[in-house]
Amino acid sequence: MDGFENYCKNCFCELTEGSVCPNCKFDNDTENPGEFLPLGHALAGRYVVGRMLTRESDGAVYSAYDKILKARITIKEYMPENLSNRLEGNAEIHVRKRFKDDFDKYKKAFCDLWQTLEKMRSLSAILPVYDVFEENGTAYAVCEYIENVPLREYLLHQAGNRTDWEHARIMFMPVLTTIENLHARGLIHGAICPDNLLLCRDGKVRLTGFVVADANRQGTPLAFNEKPGYTAIEQYENAYKIGPHTDIYAFTACIYRALVGNNPPDAVSRQSNDKLMIPNAVAEKMPIYVIKALGSGLQIRPERRTKTAEELRERLDASPAVAARASGAARAQAHSDTAEVPQVQPAEPALPKAEAEEAPPKKKQVNTKAVIITCVVVIVLAVAAVAGVLIARQIAANNETTAPVSAESYQVPDFSTPGYTRDEIQQNATWNNQFNLSYTEEYNSDVEEGIVFAQSVAAGQTVDKGTQIVLSVSKGTHMETLPDVGGMREEDARSTLTKLGFTVTVVQVANDGTHTEGTVKSSYGMSPAAGSEYEVGSEVIIQVYGEATTAPSTTEPTTESTTEDPTEGQIVTEDSGQTEEGGNANDGLFGGLFG
């Protein structure tokens, strides 16, 4: 073991006395189960294998130590439980002959997956992968280790087993960006769940639990990696294809769990009872657009579900793109309704041609010609009498010089409700002949850009020809680019953002003494991020360093130096800068997990 006999095989801190680690409480006399690599086994000449942490469908994950980097790591070993095992005392993987083809096929898929992730190690929401190699007849992937607590465990220690949307938004949104990048590279995670979302010591939330793709689908040679409540229906049934929407279902289910306090029902049972209940006490504290986003992301049938990470982000942000689509749909419906119910004056129905042909002939009248002539004469005399009266009145009116001549008048149409565009109104010759129409442009986040939403003269009023009517045209949502306020003092950052029309919420973040108290974090110090387009009037969260504190030191697997961790006893989300409720150093949860 090259001098590592006196180090814990779980956390790799030095054992001061006995086999029980004073740091993590792991008993080093405990051996890994026989089918897994033994404690202290060496891999690739540089890695020391420690405790087996988790058994997954396509392999096992070990705590380990990198002797070159002098750092704790994790190693995943490809060892699909349905296809292989290890004979006790033998490091080589044992594969029965009839499973050899499947084993080799999935070993290649395992290597391809982890080599792709190795190239994407810059993504902030996955654990960086920095080595993939083959040994012992199988393959291994090496990941950086960062102290963490699974989201599931974190939520179990919160009031009501849940958190609020502001906390959840800060935790989840950066992960959604990473998922979008994974999808762009053709990778579907397929097993997103609260156990695979880690709240890490460095403040970031990271996605873990990657397995070979076929492990996430029922009916393959690999054991089904089912996550009840988070596994989508297409992973159970071959009638539906797996795609980005599969991860959207699971990710939305994680948000549901975080906000509501319990797991959603599994997808199979939801086929017969597709009700997702949110207690009123919880729902009333959630923005309505978040509730709608949950409903869309958790649709059972993939074709009805939110399709992409980008679309889910828009829904969770209540972005202008979503509002514009909703407005456009409403306007299209308004036009459709108008077309389907035309305004037609009632009239007597004409006799159908067939009925006219079948009608019996009228009885022959005596002296028909004489009757017609008589009627015509009567009508002519009546018209002449009426004309005489009108002419007499007109002459009398002309003699009264003070009587005004009446102007043309028209009823004002409803320009604003149907959703007309400015161009549509300008192209209507009748309206422009009857009225003097002018336009003013205003920001309106509820109405799509270019749509008329108000008029200065109410619809239905009768006005003289040429009356001026001012129509208000929407300029859409008022967006501004968020400036970078990182490094500014709190009051300067507030002033900068409020002058642009944003509301500002300040969240205090831990300070290890290397930062100036009362200044905004320079890295990931605001949400949304600097440079993004954001709706004026919306809330911007800035993270401000609090009073400097000093944390106790921790022991590393080397006697040359010790380090101090400024976040000892806390979870500090870097994207939020906020210490979660219950994350106090005196708290049993985080104090125990992070030393």
Automatic annotation (TrEMBL):
The UniProt entry, under InterPro entries, shows: Kinase-like_dom_sf (IPR011009), PASTA_dom (IPR005543), Prot_kinase_dom (IPR000719)
Asked if the Swiss-Prot or TrEMBL record annotates the protein with the keyword Ribosomal protein, the reply is no
Q: Which GO terms describe its biological process?
A: intracellular signal transduction
**Pfam families on file:** PASTA, Pkinase
Per UniProt, residues of the PASTA domain are: 406-475, 476-546
What's in the keyword line of the UniProt record? ATP-binding, Membrane, Nucleotide-binding, Transmembrane, Transmembrane helix
Which residues belong to any copy of the Protein kinase domain?
Answer: 47-322
* UniProt superkingdom: Bacteria
Transmembrane annotation, as ranges: 370-392
UniProt region (Disordered), positions on chain: 327-363, 548-595
Q: Give a GO molecular function annotation for the protein.
A: protein serine/threonine kinase activity
Q: Which GO terms describe its cellular component?
A: cytoplasm
Compositional bias (Low complexity) spans? 327-336, 548-561
Q: What is this protein called?
A: PASTA domain-containing protein
Q: Which organism does this record belong to?
A: Candidatus Scybalenecus merdavium
